[in-house]
């Protein structure tokens, strides 16, 4: 179900080359009723007109020449004003044969919407908003630096080739929940495009990465921050992907109606018809979709779902029967429209999609879809929480709704009851027991995320030290490092809880070699991966002595002194103190669907670079997460 891992290679940064070293109105008021602007008496009925002689020149003296230097009297373009007052009008233009051939026939006019007619006549405007309301492209994004985003000029002086290579090379999600959160923050920030890159291309590249991460709502927000008149082909494509993933087909209508027939693929044709329906042109939309059905431009199920969706607009609703017989797979279009109109998809098709190569897409698209029932959405939300799309608070809200609905049972209902017991249990042991019902192994990290705030309510004590590692791991999943710090001193050195605090606390000295040895001796992860991550994380945070680092590097074969093009680039970005560029490189280096694909070398450079550019909290959380999920 998960995406296949993306392995970092020199080709991912092939475009970098030498660039890696170059880091651096008027106010109008309505009347209550129409008022005549003519003088009194002009609105009174007048007697039938009598013929009048043609206008004559005034019977006075002959016209006098204009004073010297006076401007000539204005006349119509191409007209002359001879003495006597008559005017020769310009000739009426005659259309050529080619121009006549481009005019629509009467039959075509009947099938054209007003927007299509404007397009045929060349009257379609480039923008759908007035000039005063158009937005500049200097800073595009959804969160400003005042709201937690990166500074607007973070990438302005970076080579376009470098940023383009990073974003184009980020083809998959991150193994780290905190890496995902950091990457999302960087991509959503209001930023100026890199030097030499078109701002619309920059927006399209960011939206594409967000879509691949399952952050469809934010990808849609990036596209919406650019006026539709400025969209290029790439941004239009990514915007449609985001609109469909969020089941917000109508949201794409401003761009679709503005661009008209610039695209003629089946999906575009169906969306245009849907937009016509929601613009009040129901009959035209029905005609267009009927023609699409008769012309078989797309599979029947796709057009029938479009008809059902379009039928929700206006008064001219019609019944459309959806038959899944003969449908052997679902696609994003079918998934979105079926969920939007409340059409149940056969569970077999859903299971095949979730277990297929694009399984994450469907799970993450459904995780926040309000049209999907709570019990079904809970299953999808667990993946979204594990990957960083949903927060601990969002999961608590979801389970609260499930618990409040007495009709929901099964696994979703049991998990909701367990979460409630994690808060209201009489004793700490009872609350921990309830949390254990939610905690699961990899890759389901959602239980740890969901119980983070409940874990923070457990009082630290030596009696509960056996549970400390899991409790601290849960707290750190939501960034509750201060609450986790209360457990310091209650656990034995070398325990899981000790290792997590050695990495996660804001300050701390060097970890002792004896404690690291103890942790390694109890490490049952594959290939002692947790121990390798612990040493790499401590090295990145500079919390291990050089002698101990050399010793454990040899023991676990870490190879931290090995250099790759990615490692050199992220180190250089850290040296010039560019947090946004480091964040993007973190996302590039953490791609994959399993922590087994994260090497200690990558973890070391990521943690070290984040610490150097002032993203210390993110560095600590990623290092601790690596050990907890190893």
In short:
This protein is 50% helix and 0% strand.
Q: Can you put this structure into words, describing what you see?
A:
The chain has 630 residues and is mainly alpha-helical. Among the domains are: 114 residues, no CATH class; 139 residues, no CATH class. It is built from 31 helices and no strands. Helix 4 packs parallel to helix 29 and helix 6 runs antiparallel to helix 7. The two termini are 20 Å apart.
What secondary-structure arrangement, pairings included, does this model have?
Blueprint: H1 97-102, H2 106-111, H3 114-120, H4 160-169, H5 177-188, H6 199-213, H7 216-224, H8 233-245, H9 253-259, H10 266-278, H11 282-295, H12 300-310, H13 332-340, H14 347-354, H15 359-367, H16 374-387, H17 392-404, H18 410-424, H19 428-436, H20 446-450, H21 452-455, H22 468-477, H23 481-485, H24 496-504, H25 513-521, H26 529-540, H27 546-556, H28 565-575, H29 579-589, H30 600-612, H31 616-629
Task: State the main characteristics.
630 residues; mainly alpha; 50% helix; globular
Helix content: 40-55%
Largest sheet: number of strands, sense, barrel closure: none
Structure classification: mainly alpha
- Which regions have little confidence, pLDDT < 50, spanning 5+ residues? 1-39, 57-63, 73-80
Q: Which range does the strand content fall in? A: under 5%
Distance between the termini: 20 Å
Global Rg: 33 Å
Strand count: 0
- Integer average pLDDT: 85
- Discrete helix count: 31
What overall form do the CA principal axes indicate? globular
């Amino acid at each position: 179900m998960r995406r296949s891992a993306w392995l970092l290679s020199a080709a991912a940064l092939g475009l970098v080359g030498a660039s890696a070293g170059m880091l651096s109105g008027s106010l109008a008021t309505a009347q209550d009723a129409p008022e005549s602007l003519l003088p009194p008496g002009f609105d009174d009925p007048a007697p039938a007109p009598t013929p009048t002689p043609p206008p004559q020149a005034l019977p006075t003296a002959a016209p006098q020449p204009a004073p010297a230097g006076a401007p000539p009297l204005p006349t119509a373009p191409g007209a002359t004003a001879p003495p006597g007052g008559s005017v020769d009008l310009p000739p009426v233009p005659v259309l050529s044969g080619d121009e006549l051939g481009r005019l629509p026939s009467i039959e075509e006019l009947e099938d054209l919407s007003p927007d299509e007619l404007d397009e045929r006549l060349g009257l379609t405007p480039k923008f759908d908003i007035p000039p005063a309301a158009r937005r500049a492209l200097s800073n595009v994004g959804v969160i400003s630096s005042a709201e937690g985003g990166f500074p607007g000029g973070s990438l302005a002086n970076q080579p376009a080739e470098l940023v383009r290579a990073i974003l184009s090379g980020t083809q998959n999600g991150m193994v780290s929940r905190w890496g995902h959160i950091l990457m999302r923050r960087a991509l959503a920030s209001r930023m100026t495009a890199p030097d030499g890159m078109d701002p619309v291309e920059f927006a399209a590249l960011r939206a594409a990465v967000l879509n691949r991460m399952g952050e469809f709502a934010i990808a849609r927000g990036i596209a919406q921050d650019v006026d539709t008149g400025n969209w290029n082909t790439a941004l239009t494509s990514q915007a449609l992907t985001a609109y469909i993933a969020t089941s917000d087909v109508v949201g794409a209508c401003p761009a679709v109606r503005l661009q008209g027939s610039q695209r003629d693929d089946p999906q575009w044709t169906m969306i245009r018809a849907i937009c016509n329906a929601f613009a009040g042109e129901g009959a035209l939309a029905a005609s267009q979709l009927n023609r699409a059905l008769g012309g078989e431009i797309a599979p029947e199920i796709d057009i029938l779902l479009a008809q059902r969706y379009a039928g929700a607009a206006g008064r001219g609703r019609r019944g459309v029967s959806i038959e899944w017989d003969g449908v052997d797979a679902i696609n994003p279009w079918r998934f979105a429209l079926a969920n939007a109109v409340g059409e149940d998809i056969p569970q077999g098709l859903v299971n095949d999609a979730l277990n297929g190569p694009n399984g994450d897409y469907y799970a993450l698209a459904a995780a926040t879809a309000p049209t999907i029932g709570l019990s079904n959405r809970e299953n999808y939300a667990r993946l979204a929480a594990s990957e960083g799309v949903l927060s601990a608070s969002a999961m608590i809200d979801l389970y609260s709704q499930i618990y409040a609905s007495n009709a929901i049972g099964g696994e979703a209902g049991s998990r909701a009851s367990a979460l409630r017991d994690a808060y209201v249990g009489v004793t700490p042991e009872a609350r921990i027991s309830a949390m254990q019902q939610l905690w699961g192994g990899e890759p389901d990290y959602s239980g740890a995320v969901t119980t983070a705030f409940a874990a923070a309510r457990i009082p630290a004590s030596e009696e509960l030290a056996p549970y400390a590692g899991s409790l601290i791991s849960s707290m750190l999943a939501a960034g509750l490092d201060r609450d986790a710090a209360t457990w310091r001193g209650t656990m034995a050195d070398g325990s899981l809880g000790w290792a997590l605090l050695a990495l996660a606390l804001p300050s701390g000295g060097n970890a002792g070699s004896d404690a690291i040895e103890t942790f390694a001796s109890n490490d049952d992860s594959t290939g002692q991966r947790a121990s390798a991550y612990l040493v790499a994380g401590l090295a990145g945070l500079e919390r291990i002595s050089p002698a101990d680092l050399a010793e454990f590097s040899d023991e676990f074969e870490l190879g931290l002194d090995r250099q790759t093009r990615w490692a050199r680039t992220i180190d250089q970005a850290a040296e010039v103190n560019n947090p946004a560029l480091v964040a993007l490189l973190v996302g590039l280096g953490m791609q994959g669907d399993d922590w087994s694909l994260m090497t200690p070398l990558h973890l070391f450079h990521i943690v070290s670079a984040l610490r150097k550019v002032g993203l210390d909290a993110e560095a600590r959380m990623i290092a601790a997460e690596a050990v907890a999920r190893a």
